[in-house]
Specification:
111 residues; 5 helices; 4% strand; flat; 56% helix
Length: 111
């Protein structure tokens, strides 16, 4: 897969936790986290042609090590569902918006 496939995405600030989920993290999720990590370390969202081979090699190496780490970790904690952990901020925001939209309009509260 080419780096250019990912270059259209903006660099996000956080790498998400991938361990202890049901279903387990996919290879694409692990690779995306590795790509983000290498971007963060290098300071490049997309490397120059001169650095592309080194950048791609680093992404491949970090992906392999990250997958090995995730697969070898153990825990006694219950697995989280994808919705409860990975999407929690999005759902919390939606819940807050719904709650505020149910409130009475400002003009009714002043009466």
């Amino acid at each position: 897969m080419s780096l250019h496939h990912f270059s259209g995405k903006t660099m996000c600030r956080n790498i998400r936790t991938l361990f202890n989920f049901a279903p387990p993290a996919t290879d694409d999720e692990v690779r995306a986290a590795a790509l983000q990590f290498v971007r963060k370390l290098s300071g490049y969202n997309a490397p120059s042609k001169a650095n592309e081979a080194a950048f791609q090699h680093a992404v491949e190496q970090v992906t392999a090590v990250a997958r090995e780490l995730i697969d070898s970790l153990v825990t006694t904690a219950a697995r989280a569902t994808a919705r409860s952990k990975r999407s929690a901020p999005k759902f919390e925001t939606r819940r807050a918006l719904r709650a505020t939209s149910r409130k009475a309009p400002f003009s009714q509260t002043m009466e």
